[in-house]
Amino acid sequence: MAGNTSTPGATVTSRVMALLGAFDEHHRRLGLTELARRAGVPVPTAHRLVGELTAHGALARDAEGRYTIGRRVWDLGHLAPVQSGLVETASPFLHDLYAATLVTVHLAVRDGEECLYLDRLRGHASVPVVSQVGSRLPLHATGVGKVLLAHAPAEVQERVLARPLRRSTPHTVVNARVLRTQLEAVVRDGWATTSEEMTLGAASVAVPVLRRTEEGPDVVAALGVVVPPKRLQRSRLVAGLQVAAQGIGRALGPG
After folding, report:
1. Angle subtended by helix axes 32-39 and 12-21, to nearest 10
2. Can you give the residue ranges of the IclR-ED domain (predicted)?
């Protein structure tokens, strides 16, 4: 949630950003009062600014009077370099991987201390998948998230491990010592796996996407698949993921 922008001296820009930032994975539709509360903006001010944002397409209002992120914000988001460059380059490799496996395929990057999903191809199998393009999930509870956390700077890892880890299912690893051991194994082995840690009935395998730089290989993203736990053929999936990830890294070229 955004900070309290109702304090004196808050700019119009900070209030607009607070209103947009009030939406998240669990709050996709908000009434005006709740939107103002989550943004820390007085209701009269929120009413005025939300009206302007809606008129410009940054927000949309549904039949029940609640607000959602508008198409204009979605269009602008696709102009971000991480979207237009990485997603476009990775797309054919994601489709090849999907064609070979027919399972759900994910491309994700680390955004601060969260896992941001850039692309997703939905598999044929009936597997509960909570991720969507643009959604953010905990780094510690997903395959792609564990890959990204394992290769994150030490200070990021320490911040994540120092705070209470959210338990999404009974199988979520919330013990910092156990998670640290898992992250070390991810770096050593080159892949991560989870079983029903984010959602029951779903397992995942993921690998890093490496790009060559002058300082050496840099992990720019994680590529993963989601399957039913009983279909978790790890060696076969890891092999396919690594071929696709290597292809993406070569296509990206030196950083």
Report:
1. 110
2. 72-254
Q: pTM for the full model?
A: 0.73
Same domain, 148 and 169: yes
Domain final position from 56, 76, 96: 76
Q: What tokens does 76 get?
A: 């602008």
Return the closest-CA partner of residue 60 out of 40, 43, 35: 35
The last residue of one of the domains, among 24, 46, 76, is 76
> Which tens digit of pLDDT belongs to each residue from 62-91?
999 999 999 888 777 766 665 558 889 999
Cα separation values, 156 from 4, 114, 174, Å = 25, 10, 17
To the nearest whole number, what is the mean pLDDT of the chain? 89
Task: Judge whether 3 lies within some domain.
Answer: no
CATH number at residue 66: 1.10.10.10
